[in-house]
Write a structure and sequence with these properties.
276 residues; alpha+beta; Thrombin, subunit H; six-stranded antiparallel beta barrel; 3 helices; 12 strands; rod-shaped
């Protein structure tokens, strides 16, 4: 015969009592603390190893996302930098333009003749022709032969007039000649353009003429093309050659021929005398 063990009810009671004893021992004593610590130390590597695939996946995703995010941030910062640079350039340009306008308005206050402000809107495509286009025309009272100046000096004269725009021949053009006089002593000369925006030639100057570097040349008013007394150029070089009858004189225009954008048109004729 087989030996029978305790009945099922007895086993249940024993298990319940053992469970309660273990629970009491765990809660109110420190007998299981060392076992728990050892179990924790033993299970930690297992958890770390089992989490390796997830860690590797997260690392790869984070690296790819970080690289893409950094690239996007760099692109955004680069674009923002370009925008700020553009704004800074515009502010610098506006500041310089305001300065030039203030100088021009101060010059207008000093002039006795009536003037209007005009803006350059074009230049001649041929570099050998020194001619510009302004945004004032017959509707504004502009007439052929009218003088154009900037804040520093005489620039040229109007040669053709349209309804809303006009062409101005600069004093540096090879076809232009301008009667001038030395401001220091009143000696009359003729300044001619030589095709350079930075130089004028003073022709037929006798070796005996009292002229020297630094002399200011102003419009003489002869020929009735330009009003008298406007700064034209400054003498920068005078060469006397005993073997030649005339001295070689080079002058620098006072006006900023290649920089001025806003200019003044001078009305030296009464409205009734303006050529239509």
């Amino acid at each position: 015969m087989f030996r029978q063990g305790p009945s099922l009810s007895v086993r249940v009671v024993v298990l319940i009592i053992a469970s309660l004893g273990l629970a009491y021992t765990y809660l109110y004593t420190d007998w299981f603390e060392s076992i728990e610590n050892h179990a924790t130390d033993f299970s930690a590597p297992l958890y770390w190893v089992s989490d390796l695939p997830a860690r590797a996946s997260d690392w790869a995703d984070n690296r790819v996302m970080s690289r893409g995010r950094l690239q996007q941030e760099n692109d955004a910062l680069r674009t923002e930098l370009l925008v700020h640079k553009r704004k800074l350039q515009q502010m610098a340009s506006l500041s310089a333009e305001n300065t030039r306008l203030r100088q021009l308005l101060n010059s207008a206050d000093m002039l006795e003749d009536r003037v209007i402000i005009a803006e350059l809107i074009g230049v001649a495509p041929d570099p050998t022709i020194h001619k510009v286009i302004i945004n004032k025309g017959r509707n504004d009272g502009v007439y052929v032969g009218q003088a154009m100046v900037d804040a520093s000096g005489l620039m040229g004269q109007v040669v053709s007039v349209g309804m809303g725009s006009s062409h101005v021949l600069l004093i540096t053009d090879t076809t232009h000649a301008l009667p001038v006089q030395i401001n220091r002593n009143g000696v009359r000369l003729v300044a001619e353009g030589i095709g350079s925006l930075y130089q004028l030639a003073i022709r037929h100057v006798s070796n005996t003429v009292d002229i020297q570097a630094g002399d200011l040349l102003v419009s003489s008013g002869l020929g009735q093309r330009f009003p008298i007394g406007y700064p034209v150029a400054e003498v920068v070089e005078v060469r006397f050659d005993p073997g030649k009858p005339f001295a070689q004189v080079i002058a620098r225009p006072m006006a900023e021929m290649n920089k001025s954008r806003h200019v003044l048109l001078v009305f030296d004729q009464p409205p009734s005398e303006v050529v239509p």
